[in-house]
Amino acid sequence: MSASSPQDFELEIAVDLIVPDNTAFTVLVALRELGYAALERVERAQIVRLWFAQPAPPLDELVAKIGHAEVLFNPNKHRLSYVSSRERSPHGDGGTHWEAVVEDRDDATSGLVALLAGPFGLRGLRSLTRGVAWRLFEAGTPASRERVEWACRELLANPNSQVFRVRHMPARVVAHADEGIAGARAKENTQ
């Protein structure tokens, strides 16, 4: 887990595939075989939570640099979205959308922190955690918290090496590597 302090600025990014996700499809089939017949769709995103020393660099700058960090994001196959500790509601903003975030218990991230803080220029980066967010859908609506927890216990999280938490999905802003936040927000406001 992280070695951050309460004063650190947190930025959570989600990296979703924009191409067919074979892993999510395999999970869909497996959960149906385990008895979840009502399951219609499974979505998955890589989650990276980054903690920066205060004062943190401007959010536009951070998102733009992350958008160019090939170790996290490939614009040919990924969509990058984010939520910062400045914008996040402590109770989530996704309404009835539940997601499970599964993380490895012993994920050594110091090398990735050094790489991102060095060559990729994420100055002030103190620590990070990584995981996978899983979202389940049945009958065209998000699955209940209980269903998501069941899926984690049955398949999505290995209790020997991983931990999971089920939470309301935060409202994330979609960013594009060449646009930064200002461009993403301007695009949202015109739609």
CATH topology assignment: Mth169, Chain: A
Per DSSP, what share of the residues sits in E-state strands of 2 or more residues?
25-35%
Low-confidence stretches: 179-191
Average pLDDT confidence is: 87
| Helical fraction | 25-40%
| Distance from first to last alpha carbon | 38 Å
Number of domains: 1
CATH architecture: 2-Layer Sandwich
CATH superfamily caption: Phosphoribosylformylglycinamidine synthase subunit PurS
> What is the alpha-carbon Rg in Å?
17 Å
How does the overall form come out from the CA principal axes? elongated
H/E topology pattern? EHEHEEHEEHEEH
Structural class: alpha+beta
Please provide a written account of the structure.
Helices cover 27% and strands 33% of the residues. By secondary structure, the protein is an alpha+beta fold. The protein has one domain: Phosphoribosylformylglycinamidine synthase subunit PurS (Mth169, Chain: A, 2-Layer Sandwich). Strands 1, 2, 3, 4, 5, 6, 7 and 8 form an eight-stranded antiparallel sheet that branches. Strand 5 and strand 6 form a beta hairpin. It is elongated, with a radius of gyration of 17 Å.
Helix-strand blueprint:
Layout: E1 9-17, H1 22-33, E2 39-52, H2 59-67, E3 78-84, E4 98-104, H3 110-117, E5 125-138, E6 141-142, H4 145-156, E7 162-168, E8 173-175, H5 180-190
Antiparallel strand pairs: 1-2, 1-3, 2-5, 3-8, 4-5, 4-7, 5-6
Question: Brief description of this entry?
Answer:
The protein is of the alpha+beta class and 191 residues long. Helix content is 27%, strand content 33%.
